[in-house]
Structures are given as structure tokens and as C-alpha cells.
Design a protein that fits this description.
The protein starts with 25 loop residues before the first helix and ends in a 7-residue tail after the last helix. The chain has a 5-stranded antiparallel beta sheet with strand order 1-4-7-2-3, with no helix packed on it. A two-stranded antiparallel sheet has the order 5-6. Helix 1 (26-43) runs parallel beside helix 5 (165-177), helix 4 packs antiparallel against helix 5 (165-177) and helix 6 (189-204) runs antiparallel to helix 7 (219-227). By secondary structure, the chain is of the alpha+beta class. It has one domain (3-227): Aminoglycoside 3'-phosphotransferase, Chain: A, domain 2 (Alpha-Beta Complex). Helices cover 41% and strands 12% of the residues. It contains 7 helices and 7 strands; from the N terminus they run H-E-E-E-H-H-E-E-E-E-H-H-H-H. It has helices at 26-43, 68-85, 91-103, 154-161, 165-177, 189-204, 219-227, and strands spanning 47-48, 52-54, 61-63, 112-115, 124-129, 132-138, 145-147.
């Protein structure tokens, strides 16, 4: 779906209204969190009998060998290996990632849903109506798959953890309370946070990328910032 076809305004993704979540007034943040919760609950009604990759053009499903958790583990270890090869993580961090992956091997989601993976304000458009906001468009499905829906909580919550913890908590809490996640959140969250953060870390520490990660910051400390925030504990 191209941006030219969108009828709303993206909070972070369209030139017409380029706002970071920090620029959103606090009273609007809660309203938007509720709207995103509702959209997520609706999209997660689309389910499958097994975890699978999805071709967004043909809608063809390719099941993951070994299930969803093993797919996430394999992806995490592959990206961590690349990060280690380019010196972005050290040996102790690589071991920490591997131990986290192994601890989650026997866990899996009892319910598989359509997961966006990059679900955040920058990848959707909001339209203001007489009754508040609604999500009018959702885009950037390059990571979408049928998987554990917990993963769709991550990136929107991250965007508020550094400066509005209450909004991050509200988004996660209300999504769980209103049926967006039909299973416990804490079983696989450590794996999912590390999987998500190592993708970002590996990409932005590539030699050809402009340096954006502060000098001296270690991956484990950065990932633990989110893990220890308390937002993902219920």
C-alpha cells in the first residue's frame, strides 16, 4: 500500500504531519493508545492453525518448520551472529542472547494470529472523526506473519518508555484487558524483546550506516532498559 493512497495522517510517517510521539500532547497519547489497542484487537482476530510466513501479495502461507518460537529463536541467533561478526556485540552478550533463546525453546503461543511485527504510530494513519480518532490505514507489512501476537505490543510501547511510562503501561495493560492478547504476556517476552532489539542494533551498527548508537553503549544494557522497565510485566 503506497503512501499516496492513504487518507489519514501518520503520526510519524507522512511528510504532511511529521510528529514524533514526544510531540503528542499527553491527553492525546492516551486516546491514541486506546485507538491502537482497538485496531490491534481487530487485526488479531485473523488467525491461523499454525505459525507461518505470509506473502502479502498472494496471501500464500508458508508454515514455519518447528513452530513459531523456533522461528523467532533461529532469526534471533542469525542476526546476533552477524552483529558479533561486525563487532557490534561481544562474546558475553552473544552468550546471553543464546541462553535467552534456549530458555524459551519449549514455549509457544496457544493462539496464532496475524502479526504486523512493526506495529507503531509511524506505520499507520489516524483520521480524526466526530467521536475521536480511528486508524484509517495500516502499512509497511514487510515483516508481517502469522505468529505470537504479543510481538505487536513492542514497538508502540517502546516509543513511550523513555518519556511517558504511564502511556506505555496503559497501552499494554488495556490491550491485554480488552482481549487483544488471549494468553499471558510474560512467557516469551524476554525472547521477543531481544529479537526485536537485536534487529535494530545490528542494522544501525553496520559500517555503512551513519552512527546513531551512543559510544560506549552495550547491546545488553540497551535491551535491558526495555526488559526492566516493568511495562511488559503483568
Amino acid at each position: 500500500m503506497g503512501l499516496r493512497n492513504l487518507d489519514g495522517a501518520s503520526i510519524t510517517g507522512c511528510k504532511e504531519r511529521w510528529l514524533s510521539p514526544r510531540d503528542i500532547a499527553s491527553e492525546r497519547r492516551f486516546s491514541i493508545a486506546i485507538v491502537l489497542r482497538s485496531c490491534l484487537a481487530e487485526s488479531h482476530q485473523l488467525s491461523a492453525t499454525a505459525a507461518a510466513d505470509v506473502d502479502v501479495d498472494s496471501l500464500q502461507l508458508t508454515p514455519f518448520t518447528g513452530g513459531d518460537t523456533r522461528f523467532v529463536i533461529a532469526q534471533t541467533l542469525e542476526i546476533a551472529e552477524r552483529a558479533a561478526m561486525q563487532g557490534a556485540i561481544d562474546h558475553s552478550e552473544a552468550e546471553w542472547i543464546e541462553m535467552t533463546c534456549r530458555a524459551a525453546e519449549t514455549l509457544d503461543a496457544p493462539h496464532i494470529t496475524c502479526v504486523h511485527v512493526d506495529y507503531k504510530t509511524g506505520n499507520l494513519c489516524l483520521t480524526e472523526t466526530r467521536n475521536g480518532y480511528r486508524v484509517s490505514d495500516l502499512f509497511d507489512f514487510h515483516e508481517a506473519r502469522f505468529s505470537n501476537g504479543t510481538q505487536d505490543l513492542l514497538r508502540h510501547a517502546y516509543s513511550f518508555i523513555d518519556f511517558d511510562m504511564s502511556c506505555a503501561h496503559e497501552f499494554v495493560r488495556s490491550t491485554l484487558a480488552h482481549g487483544g492478547m488471549p494468553f499471558r504476556i510474560d512467557e516469551l517476552m524476554r525472547l521477543f524483546v531481544i529479537n526485536d532489539r537485536i534487529k535494530i542494533w545490528e542494522y544501525f551498527t553496520q559500517p555503512e550506516e551513519a552512527p546513531v548508537i551512543p559510544a560506549g553503549l552495550r547491546f545488553r544494557d540497551w535491551a535491558n532498559h526495555y526488559l526492566e522497565s516493568g511495562v511488559f510485566k503483568v
